[in-house]
Specification:
This protein is α/β, with parallel strands linked by helices. The chain has 14 helices and 16 strands. Bound molecules: pyridoxal-5'-phosphate.
Length: 470
């Protein structure tokens, strides 16, 4: 196949995209190519940050959600980021790694101690921190999730889960959700549901069917503002029609968040059982307490066959993910479905053990539930004073605020430009978060955030919404 441009020659820079082209790509987060980003940077970044951003952009491969980057950091701690100019931001994004807060002292101490003790464990050997972490996770997990495999990131753990499902069922098909994200590798984008990752890169894995997520605001079944589980029934319809699906894989709660109604997962669990499919729940950004429970599926009174944890598992310091599987899925002793260089990294495992200790000792799941309930009430109150707010939702400290603006025909349109404006207004005032689906302010603070910090963040959001309105 002829390459689209000579391989030894850099392609010409792409021309700026139209705003509707850009809008179609905003599913996972706000984009770095928008005019608002450029205007914010010109007005707020000093020469030191500008210079470092230029060096970053000159050397890294460009991607719409990272390079060219937003700003340059010099410190993170607790619920806060600090940029190179010394400005502080409450971080309500944190890439969802900051369950225990950034730079948690216990995690750092555990890492330092482990570095002096045993800093790596080559494959074929094991080590005590890895064994203790696997034991701890299986003790904490409900039901029969008694087997573990570690991976260096959520994407790789998702890939492993897909392979286990194929081996266990002898089937190759998967059902997953539109708008979902499971990582950026080819297998993960095949089950993922965002054009930003899937477009122009195929062929993807065969046998990946997508269904609509439980998301009333965008529901193709027009369920109104409340999910009536038509989407859950449709999963069963697809499982029945295909007849040979290996697994349904989904985020228990999409981190936008879409919060499924109470019976949603029970209905899908039962459908999987009826049609011989496994249920894989991806809790990479939402596990470890953020939802108000250690595992988000505990909010739904179901048990998956496999669950994936990641992100904050390494304390927000080490990349580490875990696949937890039913004991009866220990079926591939003569294959190699994981095989990652860092699958038993003692330092990452020490960080994770300390992280789990902090989550338990500080009762961070309960804390997320209580602070989240307060935040949701505050967001509901804000919705009555800001006409831009079309919906607010939350489960623990997994919070979302959807914005809509009047459209010419009396209807409402997704307030995409306004959401971005609110985000940059908030950054100006010291609050950082990302915008998902173009118009959903996605708010995921550290679970260690204080009540005062939480109030400060919502005051900033309130002022920013008011600024955009005026
Ligand atoms: C739901 C979900 N699954 C998987 C991943 C991939 O994790 P990682 O970036 O650690 O590979 C992510 C990352 O954002 C995620 O949000």
């Amino acid at each position: 196949m002829k390459p689209p441009f000579p391989l030894d020659q850099a392609p010409a820079p792409t021309s700026p995209r139209s705003s509707s082209e850009l809008d179609a790509l905003r599913s996972e987060g706000d984009l770095n190519q928008s005019p608002q980003r450029q205007a914010w940077a010109a007005a707020h970044l000093g020469s030191q940050a500008q210079n470092l951003l230029e060096r970053d952009a000159a050397v890294f491969l460009h991607q719409s959600l990272s390079t060219p980057c937003l700003n340059v950091l010099r410190h993170v701690e607790g619920a806060w980021l600090e940029d190179i100019a010394g400005r502080r931001y409450l971080d309500f994004h944190g890439n969802c790694v900051h369950q225990v807060g950034f730079a948690a002292p216990k995690v750092i101490a555990a890492i330092k101690a482990q570095l002096d003790e045993l800093c790596f464990c080559p494959r074929r050997y094991t080590c005590e921190p890895a064994i203790r972490l696997a034991e701890k996770l299986t003790q904490l997990a409900p039901g029969n999730l008694k087997r573990v495999s570690f991976a260096p990131g959520g994407t790789t753990a998702v890939g492993m889960a897909l392979k286990y499902a194929r081996v266990a069922t002898g089937r190759f098909k998967f059902v997953s959700m539109w708008d979902s994200f499971h990582g950026a590798s080819l297998d993960a984008i095949s089950v993922g549901g965002e054009a930003l990752f899937r477009k122009g890169i195929g062929p993807l894995l065969p046998g990946c069917e997508h269904v609509p997520p439980p998301e009333p605001m965008r529901c193709p079944f027009h369920c109104g503002k409340t999910c009536n589980l038509a989407c859950a029934d449709y999963v069963e319809y697809v499982l029945e029609r295909e007849g040979d699906v290996a697994a349904v894989i989904a985020e228990t709660v999409r981190n936008t968040p879409f919060i499924p109604p109470p019976d949603y997962w029970k209905r899908i669990r039962a459908a999987c059982d009826r049609h011989g499919a496994l249920l894989i729940l991806d809790e990479v950004p939402i596990g470890l307490g953020r939802s108000g429970k250690l595992f988000a599926f505990e909010n739904y009174d179901v048990l998956p066959d496999m669950v994936i944890l990641g992100k904050g598992l390494g304390g927000g310091i080490f990349p580490l993910a875990a696949l937890l599987a039913r004991d009866s899925l220990n079926i591939a002793g003569d294959m190699a479905l994981g095989h990652y260089t860092h699958e038993k990294n003692p330092v990452a495992c020490a960080a994770a053990l300390a992280t789990l200790e902090v989550i338990q000792e500080e009762g961070l799941a309960d804390r997320a539930r209580d602070l989240g309930a307060w935040a949701l009430q505050r967001m509901q109150a804000m919705a009555s004073t800001h006409p831009l707010i079309a919906d607010v939702r939350g489960l623990g400290l997994l919070l979302g605020m959807e914005l809509a603006a009047p459209a010419p025909n009396g209807a409402r349109r997704p307030a995409i430009a306004e959401a971005e404006q609110v985000m940059y207004e908030s950054l100006k005032r010291g609050l950082s978060f990302k915008v998902t689906m173009g118009n959903v302010l996605t708010l995921t603070p550290a679970l260690t955030i204080t009540q005062a910090e939480l109030e400060q963040a919502f005051d900033i959001l309130d002022e920013s919404l008011a600024a955009v309105r005026s």
